[in-house]
Amino acid sequence: MYRITSFIKKSFVPYLTEIKQCQIRVNKYFSKDMFRLKVLLTQDRVGSRDKIKIGIKPLIGAKSSDISYWFNKFTKIGIYDQMFMNSRNIIHPTGKGRILAADGSVICTRIFNKHGVGKASLTVCALLDIKTHLFHEYAIADDCNEHTSLVNQAKTCTIDDIIIADRNYGKYSLLSQLYDNVGFLVRISKNMNIYKSFIKSSEHTRIIEHVHNGKKMRLKLIKYVISKKTRKRVKVYMSDMNQISDEDDESVFVLCTNVLDMSEETAQQLYRDRWKIETGFRYLKSNFDVRNPMKAGNCNSITDHIKYTIGLSFVMYNITQNIKLVRDSDNVRKCRFSGCADQVRYMLDQIIQNPSLLNITEQITRMMKRLIMHKVGKPKLICNGNHDKKRGRYKSKKTIEGLNNTEVEYG
């Protein structure tokens, strides 16, 4: 737990000092209490702000305009450089040869762009470290273009890193932009010429040369055979996510990589590990304020507020995942992610009130003891119908059945 204590002391406490410096003069409400409210609001519960305000006695009676005023000040400080970049390296230091899974997720918004056109959604694009289960990078695509975001995120990687992506990223233009900057393993679309020529052959692997817009690339194509049972489960999951496609019916996927010495078995295993980012987004959206981050009332800069709220949620996720990695030693699950998230919120709330080193150590020790008592229980059964278990806020029978069958060998 030393590294977690060090992160709180070297990153969270200095950031808390900057929050307190926002208060230039004595006011009815204090920035410290407003930041406590912001941290406690990082939960996926609509209409929880009034209930949380009651728990923070100094904020009883605070209006939406007062809360929006302080939240707008917090957005000017930012959170990416000060907190997020350090949160991804709490336990495992950054090194070469990282395996990163790429994906995007849509969030609901109610904002207008610079032309006055309303936007109902934004896309959060992220890279997840397969080994640590931590989000390594994130970006918010205002134009919902995941390819542009991935190209920008790849600039923070090295040629020794490998980015794993699904069929949505299998485009010539994207592969050519990633080719010289980072290693990649991408499932390509079946309408690509290199797919059509390779899928008809009896070869399992093939090294080809392809030219796109004058850029010459040497790529390795690998076949990945999918079982009928796995395809059925994947189709159920993708249907619930409104991402179903005819390509999910294919019995053979074609993987493309610029790492020419990658073996067939390694490529297939890495692509199966890509599924961890789907699980990571599900944990993120179910436990933190990402689905609908609009609790600012009449905040002057809605876009900045959304970016700050999502950034804080990513920081909270990484802290929670680090603590869960400590508890789940020897690959044995000993506590739920949702339980860790609630305990982390409570711990940070206590540290904000008293940021001394003694209190930090005491709060982390208490939290670990509470997590030891937080045993993994049996899933709640649903009596009527054919439901096996109830997952979070999902209600429909079709959705639940799909989630019950997603622990499969798929990427």
Total count of strands: 8
Order of helices and strands: HHHHHEEEHEHEHEEHEHHHHHH
Overall structural class, as computed from helix and strand content, comes to alpha+beta
Overall morphology: elongated
* Gyration radius from CA atoms, angstroms: 23 Å
Number of helices: 15
Helix content: 40-55%
- Beta fraction: 15-25%
Distance N to C terminus: 32 Å
Please summarize the sheet with the most strands: 8 strands, mixed
Average pLDDT, to the nearest integer?
79
Q: What assembly state would you assign to the polypeptide chains in this entry?
A: single chain
Unreliable spans: 375-391, 406-411
Structural commentary:
- The chain has 411 residues and is α+β, with helices and mostly antiparallel strands.
- The chain has a domain of 183 residues.
- The protein is built from 15 helices and eight strands.
- The chain has an eight-stranded mixed beta sheet, sandwiched between helices.
- It starts with a helix and ends in a 7-residue tail after the last helix.
